[in-house]
Amino acid sequence: MKKSFSLPSISILTITLNPNPKVFRKVLESIKNQDYPKQLIEHIIVDGGSEKNKINYLKNYGCKLIVKKNLRDQSEVRRVFAVKKAKNDIVLWLESDNVLSDKNSLRQLIQPFIDDRKIISTFTLHYGINKNMKLLDRYCACFGISDPVALYLNKADRETWLTDKYLKGKIIKREKNYDVVEFNKNNLPTVGDNGFLTRRKILLKADISPEAYVHIDIYVDLLKLGFKRFAVVKTTSIEHDIGNGIFDLVRRRVLYVKRYSLSKYLDHRRYAVFDFNSPKDIVNLSKYIFYTVTFIQPLFLSIRGFLKVRDAAWFLHPFMCLLFLIYYVRFTSFAVLKLKFSKYL
After folding, report:
1. Is 0.90 topped by the overall pTM?
2. What confidence tier does 345 reach under pLDDT thresholds 50, 70, 90?
3. Which domains does the chain have, with CATH numbers?
């Protein structure tokens, strides 16, 4: 094990707005219990104006709290303040629903930075699963997603539990505990959040202005500057508490798409989860629609998954695919048409 003086310092950054106290306490306890020198960790929280009872316990964990009530509905802009406040070597985005799965998580996630100076970011291969998690949380962890459309577009940054190695980007080498991968603008998945680490000095080279900051887009900026090497850690995971149920998840995902992909933000976006001009994206989206309405392929994936990891949560998949399809068609179709044909209107 590496001695503490050889370890980089970490700035843990969290964006909050009325977080679930029960879940957030688990997150904070998972940080507190890390086998990592406490003097090398700072935890900065940028809050959008939460009710006091939702965050009054933070003082017990030594967090640095920044309140931005004027940015209540602009979580991505609040990230800018977090990045600029950070002082340590590595930035870790750990949200109020991201639990570090074991006491060695930080050491496992930091090790690739020590081994290879070209590596700019690390993240986990999987989302963690345990038997005490809710059914929806286990489903999302099984498939490595919070939105099945991202799975079929091949844009999800985490892998499903069907595989024990990373399958995206250009694999440079496979170490015992992590895979080293390089991305380009054509194969970059939706990186940048939920237990994602980056060298702070590198991160600051991207466009972190309030009007242009979206956490995925930052890595497009870095790719253009030649920073393309990442490490995907196989020996630990992040347990992601999805929230208040299936319909709340779908509503939030649709809202996110409308806010950051079908609005004024589009003028500053550098990354598209779905690109109208990409034949590959069009084909993959068509496959998702066909698979969903015919039901067979999602059910087949559920069976394969269940045989690999015995959890009934896999069988939510056909239902989730259909529900997301209905919601996206209902709530975003007019916005998409308006965006696509705005020059003719």
Report:
1. yes
2. very low
3. 4-125+165-240 (3.90.550.10), 246-344 (no CATH)
